[in-house]
Amino acid sequence: MASSPIDRRAIPAGGRIDRWLASDGWDHRVFDWRAETDTPRGSILFEGGRGDIFEKYLESFAHWHAAGWNITSFDWRGQGGSGRLTASKNCGHIEDYADYIRDLREFWAGWTAANPGPRIAMGHSMGGHLTLRALAEGAIAPDAAVLVAPMLGFKAGIFGPFAERAANFLGGLGDPARPAWKGNEKPYTTETRASLLTHDPDRYADEICWQTQRPELLTGPPSWRWVIEGFRSIRELAADPRLAEIRVPVLMLVAERDGLIDGKAALALAPRLPDVRVVRFGKESAHEILRESDAVRDRALGAIDSFLDERAPRA
């Protein structure tokens, strides 16, 4: 395995897995790791991407925990260890991305009451998209936000500029809750899933190990509804005038050669945020920047640490 301060394939001592029920009764799986000090550096709420489980980020959590942060994360509804939404248990489905935002708003309200500041919202990929959308809608009010490879545009596929129209058409040919494709992270590609996510084979293998140990955590392809609603949420967020009103300091980490989402869309949107810092990665980084090779991951963690020290100092 690549060098790591912890066993990436085991829940760390002191880490706790709980359940949280949304107001509609939907069950979510939550990870919580309290700082081992009476005066924590602050608190981080980390949200993963589509199909993610929080176990994938234990190594990064350990880095922040060692610096004195409280760490919390939860699996989004419909994936990982949270309640599933379709009969096809491995299909990642959502009816409307507003459901994700409602969950985040409710969880954030309870979490802030139980965790000291400064409070940081972090999101990877879909989690980055939802974090930014929640900021624009006023659903959360962190002291700072970190967006890692945020899903602000889908990578162009065979349908090019007509991809959203094609998704609506194809999704309407049957039950939109059915899987949109088989296997890989994106359709119509010869790239392997591993190469789309990270150049580090050991860190990629961590996820496979967790899925082997806990097959019920596996989330496969998205539903057509997830894809359709993803296009809509991305388009509407890009046109949202409230982006210019966000006063929360934002750090955005962008993999310019990302083969899964469109890094150019993130770079185009970033200048519209009043207080943003962008860190770019080139061909050395695939989509999962925090699970990349040591050189990439260390640079990313260093950028996050510097940003938080400057923009979210200890209370």
Automatic annotation (TrEMBL):
* Keyword Hydrolase among record annotations: yes
Quote the InterPro entries the UniProt record gives.
AB_hydrolase_fold, Hydrolase_4, MAG_DAG_Lipase
Query: Keyword annotations for this protein?
Result: Hydrolase
A Pfam family in this protein?
A: Hydrolase_4
Q: Using the record's annotation, list all stretches that form the Serine aminopeptidase S33 domain.
A: 39-294
What's the superkingdom here?
Bacteria
**Can you tell me where the transmembrane regions are?**
none
Query: Which GO MF term does the entry hold, naming one?
Result: hydrolase activity
SUPFAM superfamilies in UniProt: alpha/beta-Hydrolases
In its keyword annotation, does this UniProt entry include Protease?
Answer: no
| Record PANTHER family | PHOSPHOLIPASE-RELATED (PTHR11614)
Q: What is this protein called?
A: Alpha/beta hydrolase
